[in-house]
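Our consortium's second objective concerns turning raw sequence data into structural hypotheses that experimental partners can test. To show how far this objective has progressed, the report includes one record in full. It was chosen at random from the queue rather than selected for favorable results. The single chain below, 217 residues long, was entered without modification.
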Amino acid sequence: MALERIHAEILAVRIIPNVDPALAAQFQLKPHQRSLAIFTSTIDDVGYTALDEATKRADVDVVYARSFYAGSGHASGPLSGEMIGVLAGPSPDEVKSGIDAVIQTAENDAYFETLNDEKSHALYAHVVARTGTYLSAEAGINQGEALAYLIAPPLEAVYGIDAALKAADVELVKFFGPPSETNFGGGLLTGSQSACQAAADAFRDVIIEIARNPRQY
């Protein structure tokens, strides 16, 4: 079953070419990290995936990344979305390159998939073929390893993670027990790229079945 894609929108972006020392201290920046790039996204998990991609394409580090409570449907303003991400680098050009990677990833590569016409029921079954510094640290794995990034509503997430683990030779390295800040759940699984893909496919398949028959147990 082919599911319709839901891409994140990058709502706002700003670059600070030379960050004030007081703000730099709050982000615990290293001496060479003089520039910041800040963005907000309508979908948090896509934003985190995009941040990781930025660390592979530019000389940047993720120094802040947080989801907002209850998701983009209850955002604090029209440019808030569901999460905020902050990249730090040695120059404005480097953090700009990082933001370019964030936007490209959100617009083309990473996306949720909807299970109904209203787009109110969705899942994230994304395979990162080679992790950057951010997701490697989050998952506690070596940089460059493959990762299955699996997210869904609470019941679907728990059931789907179990199916993913049984479908392939993968290891659960981080569990997002529901509810997350945005009332989802899921986990990060690692293994070979093909194993991560098989796990993601199994996760998607069982959640499609739950959507079709939610009370058939």
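The partners drew two points from this record. Residues 114 and 122 are 4 Å apart (CA to CA). The beta strands are 4-6, 10-16, 35-41, 61-67, 83-89, 112-114, 122-128, 146-152, 171-176, 185-191. Both points have been shared with the crystallography group to help prioritize constructs.
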